[in-house]
């Protein structure tokens, strides 16, 4: 509504030469305010920081990210899943069915890191003694309940239509 009001003020003032500068200035201020409010409201849907913060507080265990890297790229950033200066990381990240778009080309190159899982690899890892975390979007939860068993998905956190699960406490 604020953005619509800003555009209305801008359109009306554009047709009135005396009000043009003041109207355009007011329009830009209102539109910037509308953008700030929108980012605050939609932040949980645009970013996965709350899930990453929750992951950082958990015991050690690898992370399995459902689908494309881009959907949860902020988790990699906020949970510091990239390798540190010494080449190590507290957690290893896996991409489930993530060999899509531009990651597909390099993923099949000789010497490329083996970070991609298929559903059989997920089942094997999830049933192992090692702790794993799975992050997915809400519509995919039923798929994982069927694939892994609903009793095997322990919800750790949920935010913005995304969920973080563990295979064990």
Report on the structure:
This protein has 169 residues and is an alpha/beta fold. The protein has 2 domains: 2-43; 49-166, no CATH class. The protein contains 7 helices and 6 strands. The chain has a 6-stranded mixed sheet with strand order 3-2-1-4-6-5. Helix 1 packs antiparallel against helix 2 (20-46). It is elongated, with a radius of gyration of 22 Å.
Question: What can be said about this structure in brief?
Answer:
Helices cover 45% and strands 17% of the residues.
Number of helices: 7
Strand segment tally: 6
Major sheet attributes: 6 strands, mixed
Report the β-strand fraction as a percent range.
15-25%
Strand order of the largest sheet: 3-2-1-4-6-5
Low-confidence runs: none
Q: Note the run of SSEs as H and E.
A: HHHEHEHEHEHEE
Shape: elongated
Number of domains: 2
Please tell me how large the radius of gyration is: 22 Å
Rounded mean pLDDT is 88
Secondary structure class reads alpha/beta
Distance between the termini: 45 Å
Helix fraction bin = 40-55%
Ordered list of secondary-structure elements with their pairings:
Elements: H1 2-14, H2 20-46, H3 49-56, E1 62-66, H4 73-78, E2 93-96, H5 103-107, E3 116-117, H6 119-127, E4 132-137, H7 141-148, E5 154-159, E6 162-166
Helix pairs in contact: 1-2
